[in-house]
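Progress against Task 2.4 (sequence-to-structure conversion) is shown through the following example record, which the project officer requested during the mid-term review.
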Amino acid sequence: MTAMAGTVFLQTTNFTDAAYIVAFALMIYGMTGLTGPRTAVRGNKTAAVGMTIAVIATLLRKGEFHGSSTVWLILLGVAIGTAIGIPAARRVKMTAMPQMVAIFNGVGGGAVALIAWVEFRHQFGGGWPLRVEIFELFGAIVGSISFWGSNIAFGKLQEILPGRPIKLPGRGQSALNLGLFVIAVASAVVLASGTHSQALFILGILVVAALLGNMLVLPIGGADMPVVISLLNAFTGLSAAATGVALSNPAMIVAGMIVGASGTILTNLMAKAMNRSVPAIVAGGFGGAVAAPAGAAGATGGTVRSTSAQDVAIQLAYARLVVIAPGYGMAVAQAQHAVRELQRELEAKGVEVKYAIHPVAGRMPGHMNVLLAEANVPYELLREMDEINPEFPRTDVTLVIGANDVTNPAAKNEPGSPIYGMPILEVDKSAAVVVLKRSMASGFAGIDNPLFYEPKTSLLFGDAKASVAEITAEVKAL
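Structure tokens generated for the chain above:
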């Protein structure tokens, strides 16, 4: 009797509601820890505990732990997910983190789409309330778009698909996307009206939404991928929240709204950082793996000046202020630890070192912050774009490591440039600029960078990690 009474108590609404409150408090408190690298691990663990409590509360509320055979299916799903997720997360390289974020985000949207399909199959002929159907259909469409769009983003980031925009000529792509959207919404209206007669109707909606997800992201180029990742993240959160409303699940509602709201805010911030509107990005962005001329002369008609590690070491060692501007090239070369060692050597010689972080440097929001935090770079040395730009006029040397588009002066000086108006790191205002590059290949935007041909700029060609290590050795020898 005591055990039965305890089980009944655990399944009461008061207990599960209290568990939800504790879970949401832990999740929100955990998110506050993500504001800095020193507290990020603790924040992640705290939020994970909160989510675990929310999942257990949901199972208790639905009575899944009381004689239900579906509990074994749930445990099997948890086991499979754990077996796949933990090794994948532990083995992924930092350069592949953006595509992992994209694919993990897409899994959430795919789960929402599958839930909608299962729920509609169970509810046909059952008199489902219209309010519930509307939210479930919204979650189904947006979740499917998020899942398939995230797969395309993964393919572009992993270079399985071309990074350049892939779209129909003229306005054909916009017309196709609009047509797919209208078909998906119209089909949802017909399904919600009660005139349907077969469960395959919801499957058709999911297929149309899947096509729309593919067609939305294919025309977007590599230069816009950071914005796309955050936008799809917002889509996943909103679809999960809508499904939570349909299923009366507080955990899905709160978690989905947190993800949706944070993703929406981040998308807006990233779009502003590129001086582009979200609709313009979705309509078809620019960027791809387009190489600039490989010779000494670039598209601007200028000539680049190459340098050596020894010359760069002399410039850095006798400077008062050195600013390091990292980009995706640093991530590819895994040079963050070498950069950290160079910073230590320069500081030992009395040189002040700061890092310039552009909001869209790399392939996902915060990519450079994550890389530098992994190398134990002090967080206080990281300066966001608006904070570091006033520092460049007094900077003796700016060391640009694989950052192309975010340092391109064409964004300020050439109205015809695709990136014109995009806020950049104003490294061209430094007394001297040293750029570390493998070759004269362009960045994600596929355009030339006039910075490389300015008299104050010198280029050190080669692998960034090896180049930085060589510079560090030369600094030690001075």
